[in-house]
Amino acid sequence: MTTGPAEPPPRRRRGRPGYDQSAILRAAVELFNRKGYDATSVGDLAKELGLTKPAIYHHVTGKEQLLGEALDDALDELTAVVTEASRERAGATAYERLREVVRRSVEVLVAHQPSVTLLLRVRGNSEVELAALERRRWLDDRLAALVADAVAEGALRADVPPALVSRLLFGMVNSLVEWYRPDGAYDPATVADAITTLAFDGLARGERGQAS
Fold it and tell me: Which intervals hold domain HTH tetR-type (predicted)?
């Protein structure tokens, strides 16, 4: 059986709470995605919310804190999903746990789409971004270990490197940020089923396809 990091990298500590902090965070994420993090100032955020800059600073220390909280929002639930799937449990094979990770990852992305969109745009230009990238690498490593376990069980083909499979699986899920809309034609369950089926069963008909 493969091994990997026992625990995920620590998440950043959240800032002090405030009455309007959730609204400030939502507006900040929207602005960061629309204008870019570097191009967005606290003044821009204050204008968007109809507040003064001191009112913003009453709740947060600055835009870096907001970035950190947004990235935590994108990563916390997914980290919990992958951590749970990495634990062996009676009656659940590595293959079954891997399929469940993919399915639940879609649900997490849909529920946190603005924050995940922001996460996928960070490049490591600050300590906050570097910490988020470290957490993403941990997720890739754990998923690759789960893929390797499924290969060892004989459930998956062995001719594709597990690390590449991990990147491709997350890549398929992450592509949703480019086109998925909550008010669109497909609900989250339909999308989760489709991605899981395509990732593990393919598009082949008849004997070439495998049942879930």
Answer: 18-78
Instruction: Please tell me the total number of residues recorded for the chain in this structure.
Output: 212
Handedness of CA 131, 11, 138, 193 (dihedral sign): negative
With CA atoms as reference, report the closest residue to 85 among 73, 96, 76, 77. Answer: 96
We report the CATH number of the domain holding residue 54 as 1.10.10.60
What angle in degrees, to the nearest 10, is found between the helix axes of 188-201 and 162-174? 150
| Stretch (H or E) spanning 107 | helix 94-111
In whole angstroms, how far apart are CA 117 and each of 146, 184, 192? Answer: 25, 18, 18
Distance CA(62)–CA(65), nearest Å, equals: 6
Please check whether residues 52 and 129 belong to one and the same domain.
no
Place of tokens 């493969």: 2
Residues 17-39: tens digit of each pLDDT: 334 688 899 999 999 999 999 99
Could you read off the pLDDT of 115-167 as tens digits, one per residue? 999 999 999 999 999 999 999 999 999 999 999 999 999 999 999 999 999 99
Place 211 in a pLDDT band, splitting at 50, 70 and 90.
very low
Residue 209's pLDDT band (cuts 50, 70, 90): very low
The range of the structural domain enclosing residue 176 comes to 67-204
C-beta of residue 201 within 8 angstroms of C-beta of residue 210 = yes
CA dist 99 and 197 (Å) reads 9
